């Protein structure tokens, strides 16, 4: 196996999934701040467990990702001062800038999922 999935990484994937689910539910339920904040906590913890604490710190503090980190933190700030729509926009932009280099890896992984892989290969 090219990529070993340890127990810590399995928990990280689960937390990452729950974070995305809670953030999505927060947006669908008229930008509920509580669900979006809970989704952010789960998502950040999942990323830290999946990548490792030191790698996560390096991703968020590297000079190449300053724009994404600042945008993500500004989004968190807007979320906490009760402007969830603006906060979500800034957070999404920050995530795209921070983790934009991972998209080819994610696409390759998703192409291995039975039905989803077929859709991705023929649509994109």
What does this structure look like?
- With 124 residues, the chain is mainly alpha-helical.
- The protein contains 7 helices and no strands.
- The protein has helices at 7-28, 33-51, 53-61, 66-80, 84-98, 103-110, 114-123.
- α1 (7-28) packs antiparallel against α2 (33-51), α2 (33-51) crosses α3 and α4 packs antiparallel against α5 (84-98).
- The longest helix is centred in the N-terminal third of the chain and has 22 residues, at 7-28.
- The chain is globular.
- The two termini are 27 Å apart.
- The model has no long low-confidence stretch (mean pLDDT 89).
Structure summarized in a few sentences:
With 124 residues, the chain is an all-alpha fold. It has helices at 7-28, 33-51, 53-61, 66-80, 84-98, 103-110, 114-123.
């Amino acid at each position: 196996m090219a990529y070993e999935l340890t127990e810590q990484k399995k928990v990280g994937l689960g937390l990452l999934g729950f974070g995305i689910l809670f953030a999505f539910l927060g947006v669908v339920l008229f930008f509920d701040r509580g669900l979006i904040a809970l989704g952010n906590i789960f998502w950040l913890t999942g990323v830290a467990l999946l990548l490792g604490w030191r790698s996560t710190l390096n991703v968020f503090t590297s000079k190449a990702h300053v724009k994404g980190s600042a945008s993500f933190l500004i989004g968190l700030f807007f979320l906490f001062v009760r402007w969830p729509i603006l906060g979500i926009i800034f957070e999404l932009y920050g995530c795209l800038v921070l983790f934009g280099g991972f998209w080819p890896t994610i696409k390759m992984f998703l192409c291995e999922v039975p039905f989803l892989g077929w859709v991705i290969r023929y649509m994109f």
